[in-house]
Amino acid sequence: MTDELHKRIGTLLADPGTIATIATLEESGAPCCVPSLFLKQDESGMLVHLELLETSSTHRNLLRSIWFDRPVSVTLSGREKQVLVISGRPHKALVSGSMFTACYREVRSRMGDVDLAAVWLIEQLQIRDETYLIRKAQEEALHPFYQHLDRLVIHHE
Amino acid sequence: MSFVLLKRAVKTDLDKVAARYPDVPRLIILKTDVQRRGVFYTDAAIELLDEAQHQTTGTHIFGARDGRTAVRPESLLLRDGTSIITTPTPMEEDPYVVDVLEGEPWLFDNGMSVESVDYWPAPAYYAKSCRSGVPMKRIVSARPQRLNIFPYRYCTFWNDAKGCAFCDIVVQLKKGREVLKIPAKLDPVEVGEVIGEALKEEGRFSTIFLTSGSITGGVRPFDDEVDYYIALLKEVGKNFRTKKYPSQMIATAFEKDQLKRLYAETGLTSYTSDIEVLDEGLFNRYCPGKSEWIGYQEWKRRLVDAVDVFGPGRVNTGLVAGIELAGPHGFKSEEIALERTLSEAEDLARQGVSTVFIVWSPRPDTPLGSYKNASLDYYIRLARGLHQLRVKYRLPVDHDSYRNCGNHPDTDLSRVLPLWEDEL
Predict the structure, then answer these.
(1) How many angstroms separate the CA of residue A68 from the nearest CA in chain B?
(2) Which of B179, B170, B158 has its CA nearest to residue B57?
């Protein structure tokens, strides 16, 4: 993971217009995708995801992931239509200690009388730029056989 | 002294066991094995301990396998949020070693790094003292998310030399009085004040826990114990705006009227009464005080009665797993022990009572202290079996979970129990 990518992620996460979602795997293998309202990136490059409910599907799926080495995915969608998809794996669940306390205060200051079940640190393993215009240009350059020909014909007025 | 150490290159025994149980998380197998074999903290690991940041050994209600009362990390956290309640153990008994790797505490096995760990964080109130001058951590101790009250450090079964054969509570009481200056019986008002101070720390604690030795006295046997718990819980309850608050008590198996009083007069929300071993003959042998005053079948019946009072999923019993195999009177094989134990646990589960276990730590000052505990395979199969009973009988065990206790490998597995409310 390069510093440049970390910076792009940091920039997106600093923008309140960015929508972050986290996708995890249910026990059955079905995906579960929900907003990650407090997502941030720490100094070491770990994604920090806050789980408010002990019995939420995502919290339990993250636990299965750390137990059985199953991947998770985080998507950042920026206001300029940028899309970054980060594949990762849970590194640690903090349930006590100074960072947990700071996050507990943060969620309560923003949402009122809510609780915090765990602070999940997610190691970033791979990042893909899924911004449509970038991917479109890439696909047209590298996979020209997948274009519809009508897009290429000469239009006579 | 430092044992550091090698990065992992070859498979450990833990890896081999983990390969046999792919449905059980390796972290839980590791936790179980650390509890089974104990830990040895190197000097470097102890030097890493910072009392301003980390929780050090507090009330010492039960002793260590090395027989020492010393300042050490209270226990460990794994990266899935699971606690390992550690029992310091002499090196000659082949424990896991906690040493330092790249500035962080790690578990090592035979010189190989196994897993990073965190010391339990120190709660803010640990730096404070009561009005009596006793450090607050000697009155109420902490786990990562739990407040522990050990109000009475004696057990009256010991009056007639009928304490449980694995328990060193009275030996520790004497050490606590002499070395730690902990009063044998806590003042409920002082306990309530310490709880109030502890609760000033935001986001730290999610349950109140209390347990003491049995107190046989009273108009009805154990009325004195019930009265004392009620006095304590009332003082604790003064800190809350709700009548009920998340709480667990491990106590003697009380009569139903006593249980009703506990529930009606206090904020208590769950009840645990440890039968210790699920076999009548072994119960009579290893728990002679419990056997004499209550009896095995009556103990079970009272647990079932407690479900009427506290509700399904709020009552359980604990085992000191491994004593059923110890010495000449134990089961002759782990197969038999598992079959008998899980059969009895199922009898309780179908009546709404959950069973949990702790890994038995043979302690030097106890009659069973010279025996070994069971194999890792045994403990994994027991954890899996008890968890499966909770699935079968739809028994949540939130009150004794990884957050609210942290000492039961089987309830660690139950972190992913089905959520029956999803079926509504």
Answers:
(1) 6
(2) B179
- CA separation for the pair B145, B380 (Å, rounded): 25
Please give the model's pTM, rounded to 2 decimal places.
0.94
Comparing CB atoms, the residue among B27, B121, B201 nearest residue A67 is: B27
Q: Do both B250 and B391 map to the same domain?
A: yes
Q: Residues of B with CB below 8 A from A27's CB?
A: 416
| Structural domain containing residue B26 | 13-119
Q: How far apart are CA B315 and CA B308, in angstroms?
A: 10
CA A133 to chain CA mean position, Å: 20
Same domain, B188 and B46: no
ipTM > 0.90 (yes/no): yes
Report yes or no on B169 lying in a domain. Answer: yes
Instruction: Evaluate whether A74 touches A122 at the Cβ level (below 8 Å).
Output: yes
* B79 vs A contacts (CB less than 8 Å): 66, 91-93
Mutate to test the interface with A, among B416, B419, B424 (most CBs of A within 10 A): B416
Whether residue B7 is contained in a domain is answered as no
Q: Which domains does chain A have, with CATH numbers?
A: 3-131 (2.30.110.10)
Residues B166 and B32 occupy one common structural domain: no
Interface test with A, best of B27, B415, B421 (most A CBs within 10 A): B415
In a domain, B102, yes or no: yes
Residues B383 and B287 in one domain: yes
Q: What is the pLDDT along chain B (424 residues), one digit of tens a residue?
A: 344 444 555 678 899 999 999 999 999 999 999 999 999 999 999 999 999 999 988 666 677 888 787 888 999 999 999 999 988 999 999 999 999 999 999 999 999 999 999 999 999 999 999 998 889 998 999 999 999 999 988 899 988 899 999 998 888 777 767 777 777 889 999 999 999 999 999 999 999 999 988 999 999 999 999 999 999 999 999 999 999 999 999 999 999 999 999 999 999 999 999 999 999 999 999 999 999 999 999 999 999 999 999 999 999 999 999 999 999 999 999 999 999 999 999 999 999 999 999 999 998 889 999 999 999 999 999 999 999 999 999 999 999 999 999 999 999 999 999 888 776 5
* Three state DSSP letters for A29-76: CCEEEEECCCCEECCCCCEEEEECCCCCHHHHHHHHHHHHCCCEEEEE
Roughly what angle, to the nearest 10 degrees, separates helices B296-310 and B334-349? 40
Query: Does B266 lie in the same domain as B217?
Result: yes
Q: Which amino acid appears at position A126 of this protein? A: Q
**Residue B153 and residue B260 in one domain:** yes
Structure tokens at B142: 């902490």
Q: Tokens 């008994």, residue?
A: B93
Distances A46 to A5, A86, A153, B183 between C-alpha atoms, Å: 13, 11, 48, 46
